């Protein structure tokens, strides 16, 4: 039996999975790392702690699985995207903490960039708006604010990378020959890469005043970049790099145009495969690279984010005290037949795709004397399904592909009432993956493809299975009536915050 090891470096923890040739997870190890918040809106991680955690979970997972190094065919890496690191190429010492994707300190830089050409000045080339979310402005901030960093960068002593680059550099030797690479999916989230050339865009680098010598080489998502230099995986090829949401799309085997996945967590991340050409969005979605296999044309995706999904259930629990545990929400929502005319729009800090209304705030509408706590719980769950439809409708309009089914993962997919309503409000089947760790599974699949563990994407499709599917049961006229009312509720949330 051959195995593939996947390192899944996330925002709050690092996991390692050992996956066998049948696509089964045989071991999982996980460790958290510190969240550093020196000021409001600032979020940082210690890069050296992340590297230490990665080494620890690899050792624990291999020991748990009783797998020898000789039995491991490859290592794949998936990572929190957009998080930005700069370090000394000679010593491996970071010049500053990792600036996390959630961090908003670059708001001033982004406003300055948007003064000429607006928020979409780079969208045609990058698929992205100018926003604090992305890596380019974060890199500019580090060079501008860390003493001596710009001079060291221009002298060629510093290198930049997202977390995938940091990990593969250390895995392959660090200061002693470490490979300085990223893949197309992570590069496409920096605001510095051209979607059409799949390389760094010299004009954007000039505007942001960033030396090209800092940047890693952009490679495909599925190829051998080098071998692990030492430790329990010494000599094993590092053969996959994928940003976490693209890895989940790959792990859900959404290889055909029009196939989509939704990850239900604190918020929702929806990605739809759009095929071999980037699809520009007229509805506030992001155009991004889904993956690229070595020697093949890239595959692109549309991405939309919902800010509040599971976070709304936490709000019911922590702020209103309607639940003792988040797991109670399903039973409470099932205590009533329907939402009783109550709609909840969770615009706690504005609305993300496809509305992009920072002036919106949360509203509860349709209240009557009949409404009770069960109706509110149901409205909270239904809001997640309605927001998912908002984004998927925008995707279908942009891409021109009808959605055939939605593959789902994440913590909320255990809520069967929500999943049934999701199928009903979309009018298509919803399938829950049998393997919960689809992000790490995607990195394992890609690494195994690059090293011959699996013959191709058709074989990976045969490995994927769902443990539950929900078919739409709601009549179409009822579905559309509910959705029309939801859209009216969303409109009520607009314009609450005055300039």
Q: Can you describe this structure?
A:
The chain is of the alpha+beta class. It is built from 16 helices and 23 strands. The strands form 7 sheets. Strands 17-18-16-15-21-22-23 form a 7-stranded mixed β-sheet. The protein has a 6-stranded mixed β-sheet with strand order 3-2-1-5-14-13, sandwiched between helices. Helix 9 crosses helix 14 and helix 10 runs antiparallel to helix 12. It is globular and about 70 Å long.
Name the features.
499 residues; alpha+beta; seven-stranded mixed sheet; six-stranded mixed sheet
Number of helices: 16
Instruction: Compute the number of strand runs.
Output: 23
Oligomer: single chain
Work out the radius of gyration: 22 Å
Spatial shape: globular
Helical content stands at 25-40%
List the helices and strands and how they pair.
Blueprint: E1 3-9, E2 13-20, E3 25-32, E4 44-45, H1 47-65, E5 72-79, E6 85-88, E7 98-99, H2 107-115, H3 123-126, H4 135-145, H5 149-154, E8 158-161, H6 163-171, E9 181-183, H7 184-187, E10 193-194, E11 199-200, H8 202-208, E12 217-219, E13 222-227, E14 237-243, H9 244-251, E15 260-264, E16 268-275, E17 286-291, E18 299-306, H10 310-318, H11 329-333, E19 343-345, E20 363-365, H12 373-399, E21 406-409, H13 416-426, E22 430-433, H14 438-450, H15 457-463, E23 466-470, H16 476-493
Parallel strand pairs: 1-5, 5-14, 9-12, 15-21, 21-22
Antiparallel strand pairs: 1-2, 2-3, 4-7, 6-8, 10-11, 13-14, 15-16, 16-18, 17-18, 19-20, 22-23
Helix pairs in contact: 9-14, 10-12, 12-13
